[in-house]
Amino acid sequence: QVQLVESGGGLVQAGGSLRLSCAASGRTFSSYTMGWFRQAPGQEREFVASVSRAGAITYYADSVKGRFIISRDNAKNTVYLQMNSLKSEDTAVYYCAGDQLLRTQTMGARTRNLEVWGQGTLVTVSS
Question: N or C, which end of the chain is more exposed by having fewer CB within 10 Å?
Answer without folding.
Answer: C
